[in-house]
Design a protein that fits this description.
Elements (H helix, E strand, L loop, with lengths): L1 H4 L3 H4 L5 H9 L2 E5 L3 H13 L3 E5 L17 H6 L3 H12 L4 E5 L8 H5 L4 E4 L4 H13 L4 E7 L2 E7 L7 H4 L12 H4 L3 H19 L8 E5 L4 E5 L28 E3 L5 E4 L9 H8 L4 E4 L3 E6 L2 E6 L4 E4 L4 H11 L3
Length: 341
């Protein structure tokens, strides 16, 4: 154990962590849902901190415009369109080979979130949409798992610790998802890469506090990184809250989780279609079906198909990202026409 602990010497010297704290980190399990800007920083920090098991969950693959802020990825990953979860784990295994790193290339939904978070000590939010965050909130409250919310847009970011039974939850703070077009997106507002690093580092620090049993921040935090304005926000725990108060889990029950069908993806003109097949598809069979009507290629992770102005990225479970349209109905029609599930 002494040799294993040497790499964490600088943590052990801290009175805030110490040897006992480091041992707790080594025995902890965390799920990071979303491995884009926030998730890649959190994954890096927690792997280097020695968190014993890290499950990295992401539905997407690496693209060239990710590299501006998603610190784990390289140009080669974008060229090969490697799934983010796979790339992240490959990189982090070279950083810390003594911890268990688990890549999960899936779209988080009511069908799989309970399995994804089973047995973890905390969940980190690295997502880019409110539907998934409300789903995480429901699942973590149901199973009494702490989670740390985080979001960044433009030059500003926000984070909040949510510990079931102890603090307010996300729906105490944001009761309902704002209507489409109300919130800015990374496509319309952009993202400052340093804002991502700041918020993700605060999230990482709060996760370390939670995992080591130390005092954690109870307020939400808003930080304007460009202007250096740091604002704590007190969030009251509501007994009337539909999620943590009344224990009605609308998103976990699938009432509002429309993204299990189709979702317009942040930061690009693309729609994701998820048919929830419950089984894997054969890329070989699909290749034969498509090879005479467009450009098609595949590897062990995904199949890529070009037709006219559209690009299809098909994953093993049938989940497909269709680039070239932001219209859900058009995407569904294209999916039915060419993929046919």
């Amino acid at each position: 154990m002494r040799g294993k602990m040497n790499r964490y010497e600088k943590h052990i010297l801290l009175k805030e962590i110490g040897k006992k704290g480091q041992e707790k980190l080594l025995s902890s399990r965390v799920a990071i849902i979303g491995c884009g800007g926030l998730g890649s920083v959190i994954a890096t920090n927690l792997a280097r901190a020695g968190v014993g098991e890290i499950r990295i969950v992401d539905r997407d693959y690496v693209e060239i415009d990710n590299l501006q802020r998603q610190i784990l990825f390289e140009e080669e990953d974008a060229e090969k369109r490697v799934p983010k979860a796979i790339s992240a784990v490959e990189k982090l295994r070279k950083v810390n080979s003594e911890i268990n790193l688990v890549p999960i290339v899936e779209d988080v939904s009511p069908l799989n979130i309970e399995k994804i978070i089973k047995g973890v000590d905390a969940v980190a939010d690295g997502t880019d949409n409110m539907e998934t965050r409300f789903l995480i909130n429901d699942a973590c409250i149901k199973y009494s798992i702490p989670w740390v919310y985080g979001a960044v847009i433009g030059v500003e970011g926000m984070t909040m610790n949510i510990l079931p039974g102890k603090t307010a939850c996300l729906r105490c703070f944001i009761k309902n998802i704002p209507s489409p077009g109300i919130l800015p997106t990374c496509e319309t507002a952009g993202i400052l890469n340093t804002a991502v690093n700041v918020i993700a580092s605060i999230q990482s620090t709060e996760l370390i506090k939670i995992l080591t049993g130390k005092k954690f921040r109870r307020e939400a935090i808003h930080f304007d990184v460009w202007h250096g304005i740091f604002t704590p926000i007190k969030v009251k725990k509501l007994s009337s809250c539909i999620s943590c108060g009344r224990k009605i889990f609308e998103f976990l029950d699938g009432k509002y989780t429309k993204y299990t069908d189709s979702t317009v993806l942040c930061g690009r003109k693309a729609v994701q279609i998820n048919p929830n097949l419950g089984k894997e598809i054969s890329f070989e069979v699909l290749y034969e079906k498509l090879k005479d009507i467009g450009n098609v290629e595949f590897n062990e992770y995904m199949l890529r198909f070009h037709k006219d102005k559209y690009e299809f990225i098909v994953f093993k479970n049938g989940r497909t990202i269709i680039k070239g349209t932001g219209d859900k109905n058009r995407a569904k029609s294209l999916y039915a026409r060419y993929i046919g599930f």
